[in-house]
Amino acid sequence: MTVLDHRHLAAVPGWLPGATGPRSDPAPLLPDAAPVRVLGTPAVEKTDPELLRELYRRLVVGRRYNQQATTLTKQGRLAVYPASTGQEACQVAAALALREQDWLFPSYRDTLAVVARGVDPLEALTLLRGNAHTGYDPKATRTAPLCTPLATQAPHAVGLAHAARLAGDPVVALAMLGDGGTSEGDFHEALNFAAVLHAPVVFLVQNNGYAISVPLTQQSAAPTLAHKAVGYGIPGRLVDGNDAAAMHAVLTEAVERARSGGGPTLVEALTYRVEAHTNADDATRYREEGEVTAWAGHDPILLMERHLGAAGLLDEKLVRESAEEAEALAARMREEFHTDAVLDPMSLFAHVYAEPTPQLREQADQLAAELAAEAEVHNR
Amino acid sequence: MTTATPVRGARTSSMAQALNAALRDSMQADPTVHVLGEDVGQLGGVFRITDGLTRDFGADRCLDTPLAEAGILGTAVGMAMYGLRPVVEMQFDAFAYPAMEQLFSHVAKMRNRTAGRLPLPITIRIPYGGGIGGVEHHSDSSEAYYTHTPGLHVVTPATVADAYGLLRSSIASDDPVVFLEPKRLYWGKTEWDPAVPTEPIGKAVLRRTGRSAVLITYGPSLPVCLEAAEAAQAEGWDLAVLDLRSLVPFDEQTVCEVVRSLGRAVVVHEAGGFGGAGAEIAARVTEKCFHHLAAPVLRVTGFDIPFPPPMLEHHHLPGVDRILDAVARLQWED
Ligand SMILES: Cc1ncc(C[n+]2csc(CCOP(=O)(O)OP(=O)(O)O)c2C)c(N)n1
User: Fold this and answer.
1) What pLDDT, on the 0 to 100 scale, is given for residue B7?
2) Residue A312 phi, psi dihedral angles, 5° rounding
3) Cβ of A3 under 8 Å from any chain B Cβ?
4) Which residue in A42, A185, A341, B327 is deepest, having the highest Cβ count within 10 Å?
5) Cα(B160)–Cα(B144) distance, integer angstroms
């Protein structure tokens, strides 16, 4: 029996009435048989050329951001950087599919989505630089903190979406996670809650092949990760994660479906992690270089360039302006991170509670005294 | 039960290598020892503690699991129920938290719930603590959660030889052991000999004798205390340094002997002080040694804050100066 043949108990003749009554129609739950593609298919004709040019520009700027941040780790200017090189289409589309009032729940690899959402590119790096936990104001941009413990942000997205719906607000939450994250209990609980609450939430799984060293085949035995939606009673979509137009189309559809009361969707984007897991990882221990080279032929920028070129949409102005914007951003990053930021050690006590406890006040005094003593020695 | 049968002689190595040797030798000596966790196979773990185990013992003995801590520990429970000795790796301190339900509700209680019929010989290795510049959720010191949970042993080595000896004993233990690895000590090399057994779990070891006061510590804070003791000589203080090595069982006898003989004690650890392991130690020492104390038992700990970002962590972690400040407050005029 395949998923396609799945029937609800309610459809079984003679099944008893009661709480296990008819639920949803299984038909909309079917995952796409093949990943959705737009670039290089007739569907691209229906896509707004300006959107495609906008996606191109953001891909180019995003790639440069990834490169510059990776370089900064090599110079010791960032504590760590999990690059999304090669995954820029997922990142950019995630941000562009949302409206201003929507919320993004990113994982640690999604800095670029956070930037595409409107967070200042340098503030988005504060955590990874090592200066503070979350550099940006989550409320100002409706972007939750970059989440390090895997899949734990997924239930948050469900709760926020649920609350917004209770308030009557047309707000959608988008939770981003990796293929490895789909093994965590929190992922499954989030899908189930979202389904039962019919919450306006979209889950985007960037399947980039590996969870650190573990390939997807050792992570999940499901035919696709999109299939995981079926057991929870929500639609699952499979999409080419390197096709920015397809990513944008599928995510926009899922987001607007959620907004109009259609409930949650799980989107699996097939993509590839070009760099090692982080700068601290040695990818040669678990994968062949040939694999990386093979994916280079399916690079998101390459795919977009190919289409724009063929369609006569890639004019010199767009190329030049995108490259200039990318270089300007990279220069800003180099400039800002060239020197160590001046941090206030007393900030350690600033936001533990709304009102510091008496014990914390005492500890703050202790640190202040230590710093004063140090300064005195220094000035002598 | 696994017996410590070291296979190679004296060497100079890092703590990471000693832990690898302990896993290797335990697996060699006892076919029921199985290692499982995230990235422990092909990659050898993100800290390379399980390096080469899959190659040498096969993927069944050293298993790359799906990414799910509750699943990993829960599976280990079942494996132990069927006669295996699982050694679980949690990738970083705070990433063990999804497994707490399994740890608190099952691992810690199975022996008790089954009147001794289902003991669980599971070792849970957790790299812990700060000092390596890790971002959020990579530097927690969570020992107090574990020590507060009856049924768990809580062990933490501070030397290369102990990393080997204590891990072998933990794996051989018929009870679950939370094995806390001070990750900032992973890479420092010293000479040690696996053939020379270290003291058993539950025995504290005096790492430095002294006549003025004792610093009571464990894990990542041991080298800091030894450094402080050196520096204290300039002030005329001769400090002893006691390494607890295991928090549960707690070596009350040795601790009290030392405190009674010196009359002054400072407990040092990097986790926050409130409700921390140091609070227990200070209270216990006060109860048992009150009439021998010349000063209150002081604590030097991290602040009671979420672990700070890397660029500020040195303000949080107790260093030599903070320890010496405490020693200075030990009412020397008495
Ligand atoms: C609960 C938890 N366990 C372990 C980790 C350590 N860890 C960080 S990233 C990672 C791999 C994640 O892989 P995946 O979800 O596929 O995302 P990707 O890094 O490929 O984007 C692991 C195991 C973590 N961050 N959180």
Assistant:
1) 53
2) 70, 25
3) no
4) B327
5) 24
Selection from A234, A251, A138 nearest residue A187 by Cα: A234
Which of B89, B91, B135, B139 gets mutated to test ligand 1 (max ligand atoms within 8 A of its CB)? B91
CA terminus-to-terminus distance, chain B: 52
Q: What is the pLDDT of residue A262?
A: 96
Residue B244: name the closest of B221, B217, B263 by CA: B217
Cβ contact A213–B64 (<8 Å): yes
CA separation for the pair A204, A265 (Å, rounded): 9
B246 touches B201 (CB < 8 A): yes
- Partner residue opposite B67 with nearest CB, options A129, A184, A285: A184
> Per-residue pLDDT for A15 more than 70?
no
Ligand 1 contact, A109 CB (< 6 A): yes
- Residue among B219, B172, B230, B210 at smallest CA distance from B318: B219
Closest-CA residue, ligand 1 atom 13, reads A211
**Contact with chain B for residue A348, Cβ under 8 A:** yes
Contacts of B311 in chain A (CB under 8 A): 129-131, 340-341, 343
Give tens-digit pLDDT for A312-355: 999 999 999 999 999 999 999 999 999 989 999 999 999 999 99
Tell me if A63 sits within 8 A of A112, measured CB to CB: no
CB of B98 closer than 6 angstroms to any ligand 1 atom: yes
Q: What is each CA distance from A330 to A72, A179, A319, A325, B10, in whole angstroms?
A: 10, 29, 17, 9, 52
Q: For ligand 1, atom 18, which residue shows the shortest CA distance?
A: A178
Q: What is the pLDDT of residue A12?
A: 58
Tell me how far apart the alpha carbons of residues A96 and A104 are, in angstroms, rounded to a whole number.
Answer: 11
Which chain B residues are closer than 8 Å to A349 by Cβ? 303, 305
Is the shortest distance between the CB of B97 and ligand 1 below 6 Å?
no
**What is the C-alpha to C-alpha distance for residues B76 and B62, in angstroms, rounded to an integer?**
12
Name the helix (H) or strand (E) containing A59: helix A49-74
- CA distances to A108, A164, A186, A224, B189 from A159, in Å: 20, 9, 13, 26, 49
CA angle B218, B223, B224 (to 5 degrees): 95
Residue B321 phi, psi (nearest 5): -60, -45
| List of residues 6+ apart from A334 with CB closer than 8 A | A68, A72
Percentage of residues of chain B with pLDDT beyond 90? 96
Q: Is the peptide bond before A138 cis (omega within 30 degrees of 0)?
A: no
Strand partners, B227: none
Q: What is the dihedral of CA B76, B87, B70, A147, to 10 degrees?
A: -160
Q: Which two tokens stand for residue B279?
A: 């609070």
Looking from the CA of residue B97, the nearest atom of ligand 1 is 1
Helix (H) or strand (E) holding B190: strand B189-192
Question: Where residue B3 falls among pLDDT bands split at 50, 70, 90?
Answer: very low
Cβ B85 vs Cβ B171: under 8 Å: yes
CA angle, residues B263, B267, B268, in degrees to nearest 5: 145
pLDDT for res A33: 82
